[in-house]
Amino acid sequence: MAGAVAPKRQDTRKFFENLSGAGKSIGVLTSGGDAQGMNAAVRAVVRMGIYVGAKVYFIHEGYQGMVDGGDNIKEATWESVSSMLQVGGTVIGSARCKEFRTHEGRLKAAHNLVERGITNLCVIGGDGSLTGANLFREEWSGLLDELVQQGLISEEAARTNSVLHIVGMVGSIDNDFCGTDMTIGTDSALHRIIEVVDAIMTTAQSHQRTFVLEVMGRHCGYLALVSALACGADWVFFPEMPPEDGWEDNMCQKLSENRADKKRLNIIIVAEGAIDCHNKAITPDYIKELVVRCLGFDTRVTILGHVQRGGTPSAFDRILASRMGVEAVLALLEASASTPACVVSLVGNQAVRLPLMECVQMVRVCVYMLERQRSFENNLSTYRLLSYRKADSELPNSSFNVAVLNVGAPAAGMNAAVRSAVRVGITEGHKMFAVNDGFEGFYKGQIKEIKWGDVGGWTGQGGSLLGTKRTLPGKHLDKIAEQIRIHNISALLVIGGFEAYVGLLELSAARDKYNEFCVPMVMVPATVSNNIPGSDLSIGSDTALNAITDTCDRIKQSASGTKRRVFIIETMGGYCGYLATVGGLAAGADTVYIYEEPFDIRDLQANVEHLTQKMKTSIQRGLVLRNENCNENFTTDFVYQLYTEEGRGVFDCRKNILGHMQQGGAPSPFDRNFGTKVAAKAIQWITRTLKDSYKGGRVFANSEDTACLLGMRRRAMVFQPVAQLRDETDFVHRIPKEQWWLKLRPLMKILAKYKTSYDVSDSGQLEHVTRVRPKETNTSSTI
């Protein structure tokens, strides 16, 4: 690992004083329905636990294995979790256990744990599994007393194991748990759904068919609603919001209008628990019969079923599960006798710990349903804005022209953002204009009005359909100002990478000279490199991460077959090491070299020695990622040749430069939805700012806060003046001066068995559920 030599003595001492697991035993189990990413969580718990000196035990087959004991509870080793990261489902098994629901069953489970000295449990499952774990904890002292009375354990054993600590991680593809933005498995399930929808769209278009797709979600419609957003479905049904009477006519009218607009297919998505306002089930077959009867459309039904639970976990789920697994071990080590059982989760981009029972109770009472209603209302209103075209007479009366352009390198999700911006803009009453080929097309006058139907089907398409160039506006300000005047442009939305950010700085700086630039301007970050100051995430980076992860999975499989082989992989990113670092975490890399963490020849030699030691174990393969600009002298060829020479007789090497495949392909569900929601918020900001700056019959906006970047900062989406972000930027290397993901590097090193210091000051602190989400304001809002 670059820079992963032995840390300074004081850092090591501080780390082990606060986080030593010596003498502690941790049990990890998966329970309830399986979800992709559970294995990544198990791997992280095992490796972090062993790293801090604790013993870690697999509890196979969930609570059933805990009750049955014997070989179901086995000590885990570092090597035993190798190759788990990319495997779907749960390798240690999961089972429903009626016996654990009885007092006798929990007594057996307690006996089996005490026999092995396990007083720390990490439970990965849904609310039922976590509720059972909490009950087990509450009964623990009483169960130990019973075991002493029955002579099954000694009083000394009861004293030694007097407190049971529990930390939960939510593994559920339904995303139906309170207090967390995403549960482990949800993103992967969306990948499966979108893969199917994208495939179905081609055949549906060929035959002008209507397809009704049933997705999972008996009580929660998250998968249905978000997949409808991600693919631009014509209609969606889910249990939280039953349609009102007359929905049949409304749906058929919508489908008919879409066909009249020359749309050759219709997609309807139904959650398996969908009901109408009379609590009657809405089934795919009923919808098919209705469409055939009323419209005569050729209609087919596809039920996705357990396909949604299968397949490899997405990059997002691997990273989420790995972060949560490490956080779970930290929470167990820091727990005291009075610490309540907690759940580790993610809110925005930040790890948090929440009292387990507060979360469960919020799931089960109507207060939570009201919170969910508001959350779903937000998602649903976005979906409706983009799917239901209002009649011209219903639109607000606006005289504003808004221009949209892509700037910089193409990024998957740009088209989803443009579609969202155009349709929300039209709904807000604006006339929308598309600028082709970025600022270059702007000064050349490649500007034309873009209508609602022009962006149909854009959501799932990769690249940039508007065209995008890296040209900056600075040398063409006169011509751009002229085009703004000719087309009477009142506001600008720029979707792009670092060039878009610099371009917005140049335009806003020229406001003193050109009145034409005194209009609201907002930028939405879209670049695979994720190197834009003011935002933790960019549109396109998730798709690139999945491309890297998929390739690394195949490469690791190749290396496993040939044995004793190390692959050197070069990733994109310019000087930003985000793709290399986070891709390395998702793919289980041994070493990652980046510009932000300088390294020298001694580090390279230490990394080779580390791999040499690894080849003596049962894991006889290696994966090394290198950011393309991490060091001008230690090139990919140099690293490859060094590893080849130093590893001679122990391992051989291969190299692979991933190149532009990281920019291509269909956007991931995350990038589709992120692009859709962020662009919608940007247009809504433009509408508000236009109203505020319209005076004397014209728009005049020249204050700092009228040229903004919309980015995710930890938990919230924030509009930030680009002028204020200047001091946060390293313009020479085109990266932010501070980058949140650098805190993931120690985690990645630990999971690769490097000794390193780990800053726990940023780990999640116990919070209450009601405090998790910030209130939405004009300047900040959660997605």
TrEMBL record:
The keyword Zinc-finger does not apply. CDD domains: Eukaryotic_PFK (cd00764). Its cofactor is Mg(2+). The active site is at D174 (proton acceptor). Keywords: Allosteric enzyme, ATP-binding, Cytoplasm, Glycolysis, Kinase, Magnesium, Metal-binding, Nucleotide-binding, Transferase. It is found in: Cytoplasm. GO terms for cellular component: 6-phosphofructokinase complex; membrane. Catalyzes the phosphorylation of D-fructose 6-phosphate to fructose 1,6-bisphosphate by ATP, the first committing step of glycolysis. This is ATP-dependent 6-phosphofructokinase. It comes from Dicentrarchus labrax (European seabass). The gene is LOC127377638.
